[in-house]
Amino acid sequence: MTEPFQERIREAAASRTPLRLRGGGSKDFYGNAPRGEILDTRGYAGIVSYEPTELVVTARCGTPLTELEAALAENDQFLPFEPPHFGAGATIGGCVAAGLSGPRRAAAGAVRDFVLGTKLIDGRGRVLQFGGAVMKNVAGYDVSRLLAGSLGTLGLIAEASLKVLPRLPSERSLRLEANEGEALATMNRWAGQPLPVSASAWHEGRLFLRLSGAEPAVHAAAQRIGGEAEQASLWTELKEQAHPFFAGAEPLWRISLPSAAAPLHLPGRQLIEWGGALRWLKSDASPKAVREAATRAGGHATLFRAADKSAGVFTPLDPVNARLHTALKAAFDPAGILNPGRLYADF
Amino acid sequence: MGSRLSVVSALRGFLPARAVLHEEEDTRPYECDGLTAYRQLPMVVALPETEEQVRRILQTCHAMGVPVVPRGAGTGLSGGALPPGDGVLLSMAKFMRAVRVDPVARVAVVQPGVRNAAISELAAPHGLYYAPDPSSQIACSIGGNVAENSGGVHCLKYGLTVHNVLGVRGFTIEGEAIVLGGEALDTPGYDLLALCIGSEGMLVVVTEVTVKLLPKPQSARVIMASFDDVEKAGDAVAKIIAAGIIPAGLEMMDKPATRAVEQFVGAGYDLEAAAILLCESDGSAEEVEDEVARMKAVLEGAGATRMTVSSDDAERLRFWSGRKAAFPAVGRISPDYYCMDGTIPRKRLGEVLNFIAALEKKYGLRCPNVFHAGDGNLHPLILFDANDAGQLDRTERFAAEVLEKCVAVGGTITGEHGVGVEKINQMCVQFRPDELELFRAVKHAFDPAGLLNPGKAVPTLARCAEYGRMHVHGGKLPHADLPRF
Question: Are the CB atoms for B100 and B208 separated by under 8 Å?
Fold first, then answer.
């Protein structure tokens, strides 16, 4: 039942009490500092419907991601955007709200690409349904995709319907030697060819590649590309940031760029994913320098993990976008009580 | 609100005279889009050629309180570009330039008037293409595709417009420049790009679109499979998915549809089959061979009575030509037809098709079915004669019952054609008042004065109240004018 959540949100709106929407807390580190009374979403859990031949699963927000992924795996299906968990307690609500995708993102799409429908509790405590459990649906504005990555600032995502896909029958990981420039050129060249590349990464002179698909296609691509065999577990280490690159006290920047953007040459250590479109930087460089470099290259930089987030986690919006954000926030949450400041300080 | 002359005079202050039309003989061609039953002469038509002109048109109209309706190629099927009788129809037809194609980054940057199919033509020399392929792709523009979130016959595997557009540039109704998305895979803040795609031109006016290009598969083959029963064909679709296969295309046509099409294009369809499936596989030659063999085995197990695999690309395109020509073909066997666009969970296909068959008897009208089977998107085509007033009335009630059935089985009133003016009443069936209110609040965030494509897609509560009342009483729908195209 969503009624307790609705009641809590209505009361908070009436008394202007900020609420901090929280599932398993695995992404507490992400975004600007959470504040407000905790509204724990884990009580509303469970898979509502799952029909493997419809390629759609609907789950309540508190459903553990591990539970959802296990149910899909039993039917040889999976979440194509390979969401990071960042902790044992990760929930499907948090996954959609955070909008973070894993190694397959460049090949398959992001969370928002697989969100088909949502049940939302808005800032007035109303239960609203958008989209649905079908693949194609253009009735009304696409509010469900808007919610992916909104960090709970527009409402409590009570349920989400996600498109799922069959697991690919064959998978192989490879490793090649390459410097950064060569790696970027190679990853972009591969992406322009009909190869079954499902993930790629570069770090310290080594280019990693995962091929997924029908066995004949994977085999033929592996023959053509060459290189050494790599452990499949590499991709989980990257997804969960358990790879040694992510260790250390320096701030971690997530820099999102056009995949073919030239090397940034910022101070610090770097790890590249998504065919060049995602560049992780461990660096003490000034936030201004990192953001300016990202903007010049056609992208943006997020202060993903850091002890000091006073520079703001997300790249500031231009005035028109900022005004639209504020207006949308007011439309969904007129009292401004849901995860205030988590995305941007002014709402 | 401005009078015709004051608006014309204000626009001619910065636009050449030929780019501001207001005489009836000039504005007549813009009175409707692909949904020709709804017609309205625009007060003024503006044909800008530059972004600066678009900005000034919007600024001027906003200042004068004049409604603006953007229009692409005018092929839309839901009346989304129905002009304002008291405002400016903003034709983007002169925005025809391909700004650049970047084969390394695999993106094309084009102006919104560029045709969907032209993007793939631009990309072809690099071995790349733009994936979404609505049936109208030789005529429809990318700007219109963005407005409607257009699909096509390959979107189960390759996605809709929203999955293949990386960014847009344009203006708000106030004439402020806005950039949504870009060449990176995400942007900071809310995903306003996803919100604006499919917003039917009600949130922003788009002047440039950046699309993702994909490597053209080396090989593609299509299986044409016959079934002696429509439900068996539906079950076969579920079995293909259950076997872990996502075909590049998966389409169904029933016997009345194949017979209509065959006379028109001679695609070589099995005219004795109750339904045919077209199942396409693409990828490397090895991959296609493997997948075609697996799909054939599944189809055979599901009771296919006949199967033909395309032997070359000419044959593959011939098989598809019938599907892509289904609407015009049906237009040749009936004076008029009404195309629906509901999406349903696939497992309810048999139930919905039986429901439609019962309605054929109830209303005394024929209804061939074409179906994007892979993603549950139905296009039943009700055949009627608009000169017979009784048929007009029956057609509208038939269509309303089908769309409401789609909602009742957990689907939607529109999968890819949009709500426009056509399905605005059914929005009251699919959404509750609170949800419609939120849509209006979203609209208000972008366009507080409500000047950009007003009256489309999102009904007022008053309209729903009126429709609900008339619906409950089983009387005529509020709109007397009838869809035919």
Answer: no
Lowest mean pLDDT among A31-35, A88-92, A137-141, B345-349: B345-349
**Is residue B476 pLDDT above 60, yes or no?**
no
- Stated as kind and residue range, the H or E segment containing A57 is strand A56-60
Mean pLDDT of A322-338: 98
- The model's confidence at residue B480, banded by pLDDT at 50, 70 and 90, is very low
CA angle, A88 then A91 then A95, to 5°: 110
Q: What is the chain A residue with the closest CA to B129?
A: A192
| Cβ distance of B246 and A332 shorter than 8 Å | no
Q: What is the ipTM of this complex?
A: 0.98
DSSP annotation of B238 reads: H
Work out the burial of residue B476: count CB atoms within 10 Å of its CB; fewer than 13 is exposed, 13-18 middle, 19 or more buried. exposed
Q: Is the separation of the CB atoms in B231 and B350 below 8 Å? A: yes
pLDDT tens by residue, B339-389: 999 999 988 988 999 999 999 999 999 999 999 999 999 999 999 998 888
What is the structure's pLDDT at B11? 98
Closest C-alpha among A198, A154, A138 to residue A174: A198
Higher pLDDT, B201 or B473: B201
Round to whole Å and give the CA distance between B115 and B138.
7
CATH hierarchy code of domain A3-166+324-332: 3.30.465.10
Q: Convert the pLDDT of each residue in B146-175 to its tens digit.
A: 999 999 889 999 999 999 999 999 999 999
Judged by DSSP in three states, B100 sits in strand
Q: What is the pTM of this model?
A: 0.96
Q: Whole-angstrom Cα distance, residue B468 to residue B456?
A: 18
Say whether A99 sits in a helix, a strand or coil.
coil
In the block, tokens 């085995």 appear at B297
Q: Which two tokens stand for residue A279?
A: 């560049």
Give yes or no for a contact between B198 and A136, defined as CB atoms under 8 angstroms apart. Answer: no
Contact B188 A146 (CB under 8 A): no
H or E element that contains A48 = strand A47-51
Looking at the partner chain, which of B149, B215, B372 has a beta carbon nearest the beta carbon of A192?
B215
Q: Which domains does chain B have, with CATH numbers?
A: 4-91 (3.30.43.10), 98-215 (3.30.465.10), 219-328 (3.30.70.2190), 334-472 (3.30.70.2740)
Q: Do the beta carbons of residue B92 and residue B113 sit within 8 Å?
A: yes
A119 CB neighbours in chain B (<8 A) are none
The Cα–Cα gap between A211 and A221 comes to 8
Mutate to test the interface with B, among A2, A116, A136 (most CBs of B within 10 A): A136
Residue A99: CA count within 13 A, CB half-sphere: 22
B125 touches chain A (CB under 8 A): no
Q: Residues 223..282 of B with a Cβ closer than 8 Å to A: which? A: 238-239, 241-242, 244-246
Q: How far apart are CA B327 and CA B28, in angstroms?
A: 25
Q: Which of B342, B401, B332, B330 is nearest to B366 (CA)?
A: B330
The full set of domain ranges for chain A reads 3-166+324-332, 170-305
